[in-house]
Amino acid sequence: MLSERQTEFQRKPICDITKIVKVSWVKRKAIQELLTVGLITYANDARFQAIHFHHSEDWTLQIKYVQGRDAGLYECQVSTHPPTSIFLHLEVVDYYEKVKEEEEEEEEEEEEEEKKKKHNIKQQQRQHNNNINNNISNNISNNNSNNNNNNNNNNNINTNYIHT
């Protein structure tokens, strides 16, 4: 007769081989660098660490204090049959350099806008000056006509107003 404990073992598998896998992180470059296997870190750099929570399928490679030299291709290897790999490309962007570039771009855009405004103002001034010159020319020519017509009448005073 089977005891309660033996019956329990019969209902549940003792060893689920499909769940036994090793996850490794490798940095791919001219010479591959093994970073982690499971939760054990093999890298000579303490900034690298594999993170995995029990009953989770997620394996994360944590890199503390990321530096420019950390950029590159990383491989997550899963020891299944056949083996599975996921490749990730890490691009490191210097935050301060990025902010500086964005500020420079904004300044260039503002300078360009300022140039456009000045150009438009100069065009408006030229147009305004041309209008004034035309008005003066017209008024002078009208005055000359009036003076020719009124040569005998010295009491006639011509006043020209130019509005600017």
From TrEMBL:
InterPro entries given in the database record: Ig-like_dom_sf, Ig-like_fold, Zig-8
Biased composition regions of type Acidic residues, renumbered to the chain: 102-113
Protein name from the UniProt record: Ig-like domain-containing protein
Composition bias, Low complexity: 122-158
One GO cellular component term: neuron projection membrane
Organism: Vespula germanica (German yellow jacket)
Biological process terms in GO annotation: synapse organization
Origin superkingdom: Eukaryota
Span list, region Disordered: 99-164
